[in-house]
Amino acid sequence: MSTVSTHRPEGRYGRSSDQRTDRTLKVVGAVLGAVLLAVVGWFGWHYVAGSEISAQVISFTATDKAVRVHLEVHKDAGASGYCTVRSQSADGAEVGRADFRFSGPDTRIDKVVTLRTTAPGTTAELLGCHGD
Question: Which residue windows are transmembrane per the record (predicted)?
Fold first, then answer.
């Protein structure tokens, strides 16, 4: 008894539609992957290179009515903007928040600012800095 082959002879019927579909899907997938990579790269570059202002809290001192915060700001020459600082009490409630402005030609600014609070603050947190 012989077995019957279900395989078509090559070259007789042309390319299978499955092969064409596979090739099309590979091309579309490669193009979409390249576009996604380009978009992620652009956003990453824009985030890193576009940041003209950065800051950090060096130290802070808390009293019953205020928190003195030592800020160090790094910025582009001539850039101006503001940094937002907040303080929280021991139970985590926000007791003070303020924006502190800066400008000028300096690229590094050391500034001690006073944040008035509604209750004794136990923290000084830099929420962020933004340019004008």
Answer: 25-45
